[in-house]
Amino acid sequence: MHEERNRQTILIVDDSDDIRSILAQMLEIDGYHVEQASDGTEALSTAERIRPNLILMDLRMPMMNGIAATRQLHEHAETREIPVVIVSGLDSEMFRDAAFSVGCAAFLTKPFSTHELQDILKRLLPQHESAPAK
Amino acid sequence: MSHRSSSSIKALASANLHESGVVSSKPVLIGRSQLIERMRAVIERIAHTNSSVLITGATGTGKEIVARLIHAQSNRAQEPFVDVNCSAIPEALFETEFFGHERGTFTGAHEMRRGLFEQCAGGTLFLDEVDALPLTAQAKLLRVLQERTLRRVGGRENIRTDVRIISSTNRNLQAAIAAGAFRPDLFFRLRVVPIYVPPLAERREDVPLLITHFLGRHAKRTGEKLRSFTPKAVRVMQDHDWAGNVRELENAIEFAVALGMGEQLDVNDLPPNLLPGFEFETAPLIAGSDPSNILRSSLAKRLPLAEVERCYIVAMYELHDKHSINTAAALGIDRRTLYRKLKEYGVG
Ligand SMILES: Nc1ncnc2c1ncn2[C@@H]1O[C@H](COP(=O)(O)OP(=O)(O)OP(=O)(O)O)[C@@H](O)[C@H]1O
Ligand SMILES: [Mg+2]
Fold first, then answer.
1. B283 in contact with A at a CB cutoff of 8 Å?
2. Can you give A92-129 as a three-state secondary structure string?
3. B67 phi and psi, to 5 degrees?
4. Closest residue of B to A94, CA-based?
5. Cis amide leading into A111 (omega within 30)
6. What's B3-196's CATH class?
């Protein structure tokens, strides 16, 4: 199907199964294709393999935190252009500064509304391709 | 604490005076380096005297800890330690704040109020960021220090003062004197005992001790299990230049214990700017980044102005759904200028 091929892929990285599935539901309703990873290291290998259009990244995770993972994604030519949105319950200047210093595109604090997430995606993803199947 | 009659002064005072009265917890000065040991010896030698102390040193080096430590080791330890940030006191309020006022002196002065000097009678007054005192305030302060008496605003009575003054600054006061911004006579009166707190980079051997101290304090405060760093992470911290000194180290450890989940915290758990070879991400900001984040991230990355302009223009263009007329209007520039710039940036 034409729409299927044009669908954009979002990689959700979070160590909480619940958060991953809630986010996945939100995104699938909007027509995105969703992939998941449950820690920073897995995020790196998955991102390299599937080259998502965007990554939603938790901060506090086992193996590798979201800041370190974002930094490494941006050190590799294959993944450096992928926008990373930090999605975290931790909010402070310290984490925001660190996130932006490694090149993340946006910082979203939990809890957030569907609307806030949609706004960010709309801004970061080229719209002509993302047209949710409708 | 005396009764406050004016609500604006009340708000000001509660914002400025972190602590008044007997110091709650004993200040801990960590460090075994020669520089710190030498400083500790000076503190021990002068704590019992009433001499004024001027503490200098870069931001985050521990000047406030030194001030509290001097007080805690002095004969005044059971008396108040009053901490006032001079940069937070408006010039117009200096006199009433420091010396108090009599009842009925001005509108709202329904009652007599004692100033900082009287509030910490017998104790220590800590003038933090003393360089921020305006010249008029410097003159008034100097007079009280010379005469050892003060008059409340609107008062006639000379009240004897008994206060030990400790001041601190991270500025070069000699330069301020040369520039006419600080009174030399006040400087010499404040600096009977000068104490210089060296930057952390000059006492790297203290870094591991400080790390252990902050990790222990975190565990105690939160009830979490005590964690440690890998030797490699410790080495990275020991090699870092610590422009923000001990405060930056303290924050780095807060960062690591918040983000790291392992038993042992590793290099990856440290703030990214500590990592060897780290350079602030120089890749172009991703088009469509939130314009409100651009300033923040540009600052974090120390971007040149031209780059900030590029990011901002591209972000605004995306925000306006690539509508050039609207974008140009929002930016307040000519549409042709916008075209030219977009073309320069390779955006279209
Ligand atoms: N030697 C030390 N041992 C333990 N903690 C320290 C030491 N030096 C500094 N700290 C801690 O580092 C932080 C900064 O110290 P402090 O506030 O005394 O710095 P400062 O020199 O007054 O900085 P500023 O000029 O920015 O006011 C504080 O949380 C303090 O507890
Ligand atoms: Mg200070």
1. yes
2. CHHHHHHHHHCCCCEEEECCCCHHHHHHHHHHHCCHHH
3. -60, -45
4. B255
5. yes
6. alpha beta
- B125 near B116, Cβ under 8 Å? yes
Sorted by where each begins, the domain ranges of chain B are: 3-196, 204-274, 283-345
Could you tell me where the DSSP H helices lie in chain B?
Answer: 7-16, 34-46, 63-72, 94-99, 116-119, 135-147, 173-178, 184-190, 207-222, 231-239, 245-259, 291-301, 305-319, 324-331, 335-345
Print the domain residue range for A30: 2-124
Q: Is the dihedral of CA B260, B266, B269, B271 positive or negative?
A: positive
CA distance B77 to B81: 8
What is this structure's pTM?
0.80
B290 in A contact zone (CB under 8 Å)? yes
Q: Which of A101, A107, A121 to mutate to test the interface with B (most CBs of B within 10 A)?
A: A101
Partnered with residue A55 across adjacent β-strands are A11, A84
- Return the CATH number of B204-274, one of 1.10.8.60, 1.10.1520.10, 3.40.47.10, 1.10.10.10: 1.10.8.60
The span from the first CA to the last CA of chain B, in angstroms, equals 65
**pLDDT number for residue B311:** 82
Q: Do A98 and B255 touch (CB under 8 A)?
A: yes
Which residue of B55, B65, B168, B206 sits with most ligand 1 atoms within 8 Å of its CB, as the best mutation to test the pocket? B65
For residues B49-72, average pLDDT: 97
Residue for token pair 């610590």: B242
* Rounded distance from Cα B195 to ligand 2 centre (Å): 14
Number of domains chain A is built from: 1
Are the Cβ atoms of A71 and B272 closer than 8 angstroms? yes
**Tokens standing for residue A21:** 């599935």
Q: Does B280 contact A101 at a Cβ distance shorter than 8 Å?
A: yes
Nearest CA to ligand 1 atom 16: B62
State CA B238 to chain mean position distance.
23
B336 falls in which pLDDT band (50, 70, 90)?
confident
Please report, rounded to a whole number, the percentage of residues in chain B having pLDDT higher than 70. Answer: 85
In this complex, is the C-beta atom of A19 within 8 Å of any C-beta atom belonging to chain B?
no
Distance CA A105, CA A88 (A): 14
Whose CA is closest to atom 24 on ligand 1? Answer: B59
Query: Chain A residues with CB inside 8 Å of B320's CB?
Result: none
